[in-house]
Amino acid sequence: MKKKMFFQNAAQSHIRDYSSLYIFIIVLFLMGVICGSIIVNSLSFMQKEDLLYYLTRFFGEVKTGTVTTSSHIFAESVKHNIQYIGLIWILGISIIGIPITLVLLFLKGMVVGFTVGFLVNAMSWEGFQIALVAVLPQNIILVPIMIFITTLSLALSMKIIGRVFLKQVRQPIKPILLKYMLSFVVCVIFIIGAGVIEAYFSPSLMKSIVS
């Protein structure tokens, strides 16, 4: 009970301290999602046809069970997401990392928006169903993790800039860096969980819809 109260208080304190950053980052991510969906509408007929052709081939492989193994999907998913989150995490230690971090977050939103937008645009209700089982489950975990680590990355970058250029020294940097390292470990644990969902649950759900 005490541990639960401790984590609740810590979470509330964290959100309260970084509420303005969270709002900015969430809005930027949603802008990326909207931009991605707009790009779908700007594609030419031939571009949509080409994408739909490859998508149909993929669904055919899913239906026949010839798609790559779950273990391979899991490994690739975890590898890709750790690299993406890791890059944002590393940029937090860099003074020049802020604009790149924001671009990476925006691009993530664009990919999600484009994927869902194209599926719905090309396949209507069936596309929406596929998006629910193939895109949404793992991103329920990955998107909050992305927003969380981006917030910490920007906060640390601003603290370092304050120390270097504005000579602001409010608290020792070592405990901050230790917490920052711990946050990355926590993110990796959640990424592994998202990888399990993407590799072992989403394909079977998608197969039932495609069939």
TrEMBL record:
Residue intervals passing through the bilayer: 21-45, 84-107, 114-135, 141-166, 178-201
NCBIfam families assigned to the protein according to its UniProt record, in alphabetical order: spo_II_M
Listed InterPro entries: SpoIIM, SpoIIM-like
Membrane topology field: Multi-pass membrane protein
Quaternary state and interactors: Component of the MPD complex composed of SpoIIM, SpoIIP and SpoIID.
Species of origin: Peribacillus faecalis
Gene: spoIIM
Name of protein: Stage II sporulation protein M
Functional description taken from the UniProt entry: Required for complete septum migration and engulfment of the forespore compartment during sporulation. Required for stabilizing and recruiting of SpoIIP to the septal membrane.
Residues forming coiled coils: none
